[in-house]
Amino acid sequence: MGNLAFGNQKPEDIAPKIEEMLREELGGNSPVPYTVEDAGASKTTIGTLLKEGAGLLFGREEVLLFSVVFQLPGKRPATLNAHVNRQGIGAHAGELLYTAELSKPVKSEISLQPPKFFSGPKFEGDPEKIEKLNANKDLLKQLGKLVRTKANVGGVDISIPFAAIIVPKGNGSILVINTLPRMVAMGFKAAMDAKDFLEIAATIEAAL
């Protein structure tokens, strides 16, 4: 089923597995601190199984069971909010919401626009800041790979809107990126690319 698909819906079983995977990606020895936030989703019943089975054929809406919120290591406050969704009697990790506090301010929201047919993604918004951001082609290339809108986790196709923004906060700003797991090893494993996010946050902060 892959390392982000699980055979049960127990946070006490699932959260440590995601943490272990995240720690391995980051190359750290110490556990990554986290909390579990219950979404209040109902437990699986015969009715939910039948409804979900139909959804797999005709398009489905993800049912959030809980989120695992990690405090990422580094010099700037950063988090990963990993959504865990119901999948039959089991579960899978879906949306990965990354945030990082940046020391540089922005006057207004900056958003990354999705790639078009003949061009890659580009920033729009605060005119004083986007010129430097858009001039960094390596950054745009990294973002184009990180901000994913489609994935297949445990045999389930997931789609989310394209979302990467920088918003003002006090004397600084906050980077927010919503993405999905990246499938590797011919789909048998998944990666969350947390290290890539932290590198992107540092590059954006320097450019601002």
Task: Describe the protein.
This protein has 208 residues and is of the alpha+beta class. It is 30% helix and 37% strand. It has helices spanning 11-26, 46-58, 127-135, 137-146, 194-207; strands at 5-6, 34-38, 64-72, 78-87, 90-102, 110-113, 122-125, 150-153, 156-159, 163-169, 172-179, 182-184, 189-191. The strands form 3 sheets. Strands 1, 2, 3, 4, 5, 6, 7, 10 and 11 form a 9-stranded antiparallel β-sheet that branches. Helix 4 packs antiparallel against helix 5. The longest helix is centred in the first third of the chain and has 16 residues, at 11-26. The protein is globular, with a radius of gyration of 18 Å. Mean pLDDT is 85; it is low at 41-60.
